[in-house]
Specification:
By secondary structure, the protein is an alpha+beta fold. Helix content is 36%, strand content 38%. The protein contains 4 helices and 6 strands. A 6-stranded mixed β-sheet has the order 2-1-6-5-4-3.
């Protein structure tokens, strides 16, 4: 009887301990790695629209509650679906967008989030018309299962003298 109890209890206790522990925690990512990965995300964002790879461009936005995109002081998009419609409308108009990034400042907020600020020069060409935006792009990037995504963004012109 003692042998049977020992043979039954040990596996049962082992199973209980393993089940109680839950999923193993992911190791923390260093701030330097977060900065590099977010800088890559921002480069991919600028290159995807400049290369007219719209599906790649749209895939860089986080499809999550709380998504927010602000341009020129107004909330333009509150979801990935809304920003995708906006991207498709610009593409449908025949406009070509070229983005060039300048100085980047990235502040890791942990292993899975970072705030960023980057100088942005964006040129939009539609037929004979051409518009250049020289401003700042700020936001929050988050790490999701598929990689880093833009969760919140804000574009605005530079202040005079900045």
């Amino acid at each position: 009887m003692k042998v049977w109890i020992r043979k039954s209890i040990v596996p049962l206790l082992t199973w209980i301990v393993v089940a109680a522990c839950g999923e193993p925690q992911q190791p923390a990512v260093s701030p330097a790695v977060v900065e590099i990965e977010v800088a890559i995300l921002l480069s991919e964002w600028a290159e995807a629209i400049s290369d007219n790879r719209l599906d790649d461009f749209k895939a860089l936005y986080a499809d999550r509650e709380g998504f927010l995109w602000i341009e020129r002081g107004a909330v333009l998009y509150r979801s990935v679906e809304e920003i995708a419609i906006g991207i498709d409308e610009v593409a449908g108009s025949g406009a070509v967008i070229e983005n060039t990034l300048g100085a980047v400042d990235i502040a890791p907020l942990g292993s899975d989030a970072a705030a960023f600020s980057v100088a942005l020069k964006s040129t939009v060409t539609a037929g004979e018309s051409r518009f250049t935006f020289d401003g700042i792009f700020t936001g929050v990037a988050i790490r999701e299962e598929g990689g880093w995504r833009l969760f919140q963004g804000h574009l605005s012109e530079r202040a005079d003298g900045a």
